[in-house]
Amino acid sequence: MPDSTMLQSQYAAQIQSDLDSNVAEREHIAGQISALQEQLSVLENNHALLASMQQAIGTPALPAAGKAPKKAAGTPAPRIPQARSGSKSAGRAAKKQARPAPKAKASGAAPTLRELVAAHLATSGEPRSAAEITAGLTDAHPGRNIAGTVVRNTLENLVAKGQAQRTRQNRSVFYTAPEGGDTSTSAKPADSDVKKGEDAVTPVTTD
After folding, report:
1. What are the start and end residues of every segment in region (Disordered) (predicted)?
2. Closest CA to 130 of 98, 156, 169, 111
3. Going by DSSP bridges, is the β-strand pair 172-176/165-169 parallel, antiparallel, or unpaired?
4. Euclidean distance between CA atoms 40 and 47, whole angstroms
């Protein structure tokens, strides 16, 4: 019966393969169990050591992990004391003191932009455009913020007050000191309202 013999041999080979796989899996799991047991043993030894050290220094033992302490019935939760009003007042006063003190205004009377423009016209001796006057004042006074639009408005105000003259050459506008050299900006009381620095002047639209 060759067929039965062959079938028996196949079964025997399959069983042997299953036994080998089973042995290998058992050895693998046994190795994992052995490693876990070793880790557990180390953790238990560390726990015992830490517990003995805690007892030696007199620190009360904490509950084991995962077990929350039971709250006694009827025991109110401790209230966090609120800060007193005096402490709040002290904190506010400290903040006020920490704020920087306002800067004192300079006591020296610096020339206004109107005065600078008039003086520049008086000393230039020839017609100058608003851009040229702005560049000259910027070079002469690098510490001041002199804007071209403010200079142009100042020039137009001087022209309106007769303290400067305006001429046109093609599409360009030039300014000169008035004939006779009267460029004083203090001749009219209305000039006293001009602010120092960049003068707050009313823009004048020119064609």
Report:
1. 63-110, 162-207
2. 156
3. antiparallel
4. 10
Please report which helix (H) or strand (E) contains residue 42, including its range.
helix 2-57
Which SS3 state, helix, strand or coil, does residue 200 take? Answer: coil
What's the chain's average pLDDT?
74
State how far the alpha carbon of 127 is from the alpha carbons of 19, 78, 95, 136, 167, in Å. Answer: 114, 86, 57, 13, 8
Distance (Å, whole) CA 175 – CA 162: 12
Q: Structure tokens of 142?
A: 């690098």
Q: Which residue has the tokens 């299953």?
A: 18
Q: Which residues, at least 6 apart from 122, have a Cβ–Cβ distance to it below 8 Å?
A: 177, 181, 183
Sequence-distant (6+) residues with CB within 8 A of 38 are: none
Q: Are 179 and 165 in contact (CB under 8 A)?
A: yes
Cβ atoms of 120 and 137 closer than 8 Å: yes
Q: What is the DSSP letter of 128?
A: B
Per-residue pLDDT tens for 41-57?
999 999 999 998 988 88
CA distance linking residue 31 with residue 114, whole number of Å: 96
Q: How far apart are CA 199 and CA 4, in angstroms?
A: 119
Contact 202, 157 (CB under 8 A): yes
